[in-house]
């Protein structure tokens, strides 16, 4: 079964995420991609790859991706968020990042970290599994 990656970006960071995704298209094509509404549409068009689109972040998309984390169905989150422009759904963003910590899901909030995660030989190794916490 393919790993599932979530790609999310705040409005001011969408161009940065799109450029990053285009640079890593060959790698991303190996995974099931999910995204919040507008970002998913932009990614699908830019990459010419299937992207499962959830609702827009402020309309519940962040929470839908959070549900994937809680269900154990998400393998990594690439969330290019804008720390200088607070969003009206900021509590949802914080909850999403909190869930990544709770369930030990790799999360990249900027291009440098996204590059490290996607290029790691451990990330693509089917014999490597992230430790799932037991609560």
Question: Can you describe what's shown?
Answer:
- GO terms for molecular function: methylglyoxal synthase activity.
- Catalyzes the formation of methylglyoxal from dihydroxyacetone phosphate.
- This is Methylglyoxal synthase.
- It is built from seven helices and five strands.
- It has helices spanning 14-23, 25-28, 37-47, 61-71, 90-102, 111-119, 121-124; strands at 4-9, 32-35, 51-53, 76-80, 107-108.
- The protein has 135 residues and is an alpha/beta fold.
- Strands 3-2-1-4-5 form a five-stranded parallel β-sheet, with helices on both faces.
- Helix 1 (14-23) runs parallel beside helix 3 and helix 4 (61-71) packs parallel to helix 5 (90-102).
- The longest helix is centred in the C-terminal third of the chain and has 13 residues, at 90-102.
- Strand 4, helix 5 and strand 5 (107-108) form a beta-alpha-beta unit.
- Helix content is 46%, strand content 15%.
- The model has no long low-confidence stretch (mean pLDDT 92).
- The radius of gyration is 14 Å and the shape is globular.
- The protein has a domain at 45-124: Methylglyoxal synthase-like domain (Rossmann fold).
Proportion in β-strands: 5-15%
User: Nearest-angstrom radius of gyration?
Assistant: 14 Å
Shape: globular
The count of strands amounts to 5
Number of helices: 7
Order of helices and strands: EHHEHEHEHEHH
Mean pLDDT: 92
Low-confidence spans: pLDDT under 50, at least 5 residues?
none
Q: What is the CATH superfamily of the domain at 45-124?
A: Methylglyoxal synthase-like domain
């Amino acid at each position: 079964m393919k790993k599932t990656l979530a790609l999310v970006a705040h409005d001011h960071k969408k161009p940065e995420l799109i450029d990053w995704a285009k640079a890593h298209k060959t790698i991303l094509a190996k995974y099931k991609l999910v995204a919040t509404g507008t970002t998913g549409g932009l990614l699908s068009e830019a990459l010419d790859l299937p992207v499962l689109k959830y609702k827009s972040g402020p309309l519940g998309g962040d929470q839908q991706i959070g549900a994937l984390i809680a269900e154990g169905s998400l393998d990594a989150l690439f969330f290019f968020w804008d720390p200088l422009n607070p969003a009206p759904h900021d509590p949802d963003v914080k909850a999403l990042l909190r869930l990544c910590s709770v369930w030990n899901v790799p999360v990249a909030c900027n291009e440098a970290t996204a590059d490290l995660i996607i290029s790691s030989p451990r990330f693509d190794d089917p014999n490597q599994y992230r430790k799932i916490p037991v609560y």
